[in-house]
Amino acid sequence: MPPAGTPYHRLTIRIPRWRTLLTLAAVLIATQLAPIPATLLSRRLPPEGLPILGDLTPLVLSLVAIACILPATLLVVRVGEGRCVGTLAGVTGRLPRRLLALYGGLAAMCLAMVLVIGATVMIAVALTTASPPEQSGTLTLDGIGERLRVLPILLCLIVFQTAAEEVVTRGVIL
Fold first, then answer.
1. SS (H, E, C) 70-113
2. Running DSSP on this structure, what letter comes out for residue 86?
3. What residues contact 20, with CB distance under 8 A and at least 6 apart?
4. pTM for the whole thing?
5. Which DSSP string do the residues of 4-62 spell out, in sequence order?
6. What value does the CA radius of gyration of the chain take, rounded to a whole number of Å?
7. Ramachandran assignment for 16, one of left (phi > 0), alpha (psi -120 to 50 degrees), beta (any other)
8. What angle do CA 95, 97, 99 make, to 5 degrees?
9. Torsion of CA 159, 165, 169, 171, to 10 degrees
């Protein structure tokens, strides 16, 4: 660990430059190779996508492809420079507990929101399908329940996708 008070951009000052440059090159290569399994999987899927995801299958697979970069980057930096993974996230070399609590709270709020919205839509769909619409121009909620089924998957993947981008751009490249 670097001494206390070391600026963020100087956390790797004790690591030889050749090792830092080699790690940077390895991270850039890993960011190109890590998404390959998700890309190969997307090519083998039927045109209508996976049954549970429907037409959102390409979006989910692109988020998975970017999220695959996170473990590859963390492994390369740990092996290549011998740095703690926490140095990619902050100056202290570890993730602050307050930040983890904040992220956990946000995740709990998102989950609660998905559950409440999902229950509301399910009730609304049950009420609208019980009686046929009286006019042809009335608004129905058909298809919204299917979209909400994918929402928790998207919320989980977005967390890993953004973490991967932050670790690569701010943690490694900076």
1. HHHHHHHHHHHCCCCHHHHCCCCCCCCHHHHHHHHHHHHHHHHH
2. G
3. 12, 81
4. 0.66
5. TT--GGGTTTTS-HHHHHHHHHHHHHHHHHTTHHHHHHHHHS-TT--TTTGGGHHHHHH
6. 22
7. beta
8. 75
9. 40
Residue 40 has pLDDT above 80, yes or no: yes
Report the alpha-carbon distance of residue 74 to residue 164 in Å, rounded: 9
Contacts (Cβ under 8 Å, ≥6 apart) of 98: none
Q: Is 81 exposed, middle or buried (0-12, 13-18, 19+ CB in 10 A)?
A: buried
Amino acid 6 reads T
What is the residue whose two structure tokens read 């070399």?
A: 93
Within 8 A by CB and 6+ apart from 5, the residues are none
User: Is residue 71 pLDDT above 80, yes or no?
Assistant: yes
Q: In the predicted model, what is the mean pLDDT of residues 73-82?
A: 87
Question: What is the DSSP secondary structure assignment for residue 138, as one 8-state letter?
Answer: -
Report how far residue 14's alpha carbon sits from residue 163's, in angstroms, rounded to the nearest whole number. 26
